[in-house]
UniProtKB/TrEMBL annotation:
Its cofactor is [4Fe-4S] cluster. Residues 96-198 form the NADH:ubiquinone oxidoreductase-like 20kDa subunit domain. The lineage of its organism: Archaea, Methanobacteriati, Thermoplasmatota, Thermoplasmata, Thermoplasmatales. InterPro entries: Complex_I_20kDa-like, NADH_UbQ_OxRdtase-like_20kDa. It holds the Pfam family Oxidored_q6. Keywords: 4Fe-4S, Iron, Iron-sulfur, Metal-binding, Ubiquinone. This is NADH:ubiquinone oxidoreductase. Belongs to the complex I 20 kDa subunit family. GO terms for molecular function: 4 iron, 4 sulfur cluster binding; metal ion binding.
Length: 202
């Protein structure tokens, strides 16, 4: 029997705590504070004020990271039917791959979104929420619409990352009404899980 297997049995799986209770949180991306006159290439600073939806967290301005991972907007309240289980279906409109990796990681043992009754759906027909990532692309517009129409009612749409919200530095944002908007380039697993839990009312 290999040593790594025995060590795993002895130590167990080290899963992160609830996002609000976790000891370690990265500085970027997080809520930025202060004022800045920096000429932001994405327009994330307007009249000295930070706009999280446009920020790619490049660190070139003089705004200070706080470590607060709550970089999201919630619109409305999650239907009660989703409180026992919530299935996400990711769809890539045109990403660099970073948002995909962060979303995938919330289902790993380290973050274990399943303990919060958050799961990944294999098809839109089995999904409660559509998670859209990436900039707007003509070729994906119809596909996103078809995926949305295939979902049963009630259905939720989550925008993930600066590219989806504002286009980032390479394109345009997706012009849709979102129930949850998660900023970041990319957002951390803490932000993703925290946004869903907050939307659920936890």
């Amino acid at each position: 029997m290999t040593l790594w297997f025995l060590n795993g049995i002895k130590k167990g799986i080290k899963t992160e705590k609830n996002p609000d209770e976790s000891m370690f949180k990265p500085d970027y991306p997080s809520v930025l504070e202060g004022k800045s006159s920096y000429d932001c290439p994405t327009g994330a600073i307007s009249n000295g004020t930070w706009i999280k939806e446009k920020c790619i967290f490049c660190g070139r301005c003089d705004l200070r990271p706080t470590g607060n991972q709550n970089i999201y907007n919630i619109h409305g309240k999650m239907p009660e039917i989703f409180k026992r289980s919530f299935y996400l279906y990711p769809i890539d409109s045109g990403t660099c791959g970073a948002c995909n990796a962060e979303l995938k990681s919330i289902f790993s043992p380290q973050y274990d979104a399943n303990r919060f009754n958050i799961f990944e759906a294999e098809t839109p027909r089995h999904a409660d929420a559509l998670v859209i990532m990436g900039v707007y692309t003509n070729g994906m517009e119809k596909i996103i619409e078809e995926a949305y129409n295939a979902m049963p009612d009630p259905k939720i749409v989550i925008a993930m990352g600066a590219c989806t919200l504002s286009g980032g530095i390479i394109g345009s944002g997706i012009n849709k009404k979102f129930n949850v908007e998660i900023a970041g380039c990319p957002p951390t697993p803490y932000s993703i899980i925290s946004a869903i839990l907050r939307y659920r009312g936890d």
